[in-house]
What does this fold into?
Amino acid sequence: MDTSFGTALKEWRGQRRMSQLDLGLSSNVSARHISFLETGRANPSRSMVLQLCETLEVPRAARNVLLNAAGYAPAYQNRDLDAEDMSHVRAAVDWTLERHNPYPAMALDRHWTIVKANSAGALLLSGAGLSEGDSLLAAVTDGVRFAQVIENWTEIAQHMVVRLHTESAHLGGDPVLDEAANALTDVLKRTPHTAPPQPLPAIIPARYKANGGVLSFFSTLAQFGTAEDIALAELKIELMFPADEHTRQTLLQLARN
It folds into this structure.
């Protein structure tokens, strides 16, 4: 397998659907120089590698690979969230999750492992037999756990397949995410489908069977915008919001009890 910098650069340029001219213009480099880098006729400086990676939106872990291929030391660490110098980050994550109560919220890593969850999130996840440290990917691809607790599981699963493919593409291809997307697609093939409503609503809420009724949620994802640590750059905070008044009132009541 060719592990040269030029080959890796060309692959990432292809992933981002940029021509040599596009990449050159965006990076303030001539297209001819990009061509020389890809064919090995020129060697990049360390700053050039990082500049091209920034333009191509290459994830931090892959930037280390490109630096190594060009003969340079890695630039990005992969710290554990429990590391001493990550205390301010832990505090920010905890603050965000706790302030979101009584609505569910959780922090997920690159492969959808549940890193942290607030009390409302933990309660919701428990319905599918999940807690901190468990894999959401395993749960959504087994075709059982979430199908039992989410009333409109087929609809939500279709959106999850798209999300998995999108996240994998951003990372330049991730075998774990791709395998999960394929497994979930296979599950959907064995599941009866219902036609989506027309016209489509502004959001497709996930309708959880809980508390003797149905709780409806939509969610938004937040990430650290200036993270230069590999794990931190890949950490996602999923914030769930009630999609109807019944859900909102139920969550408020549960919080009071």
Observations:
- The longest strand covers residues 213-222.
- DSSP finds 13 helices and five strands in the chain.
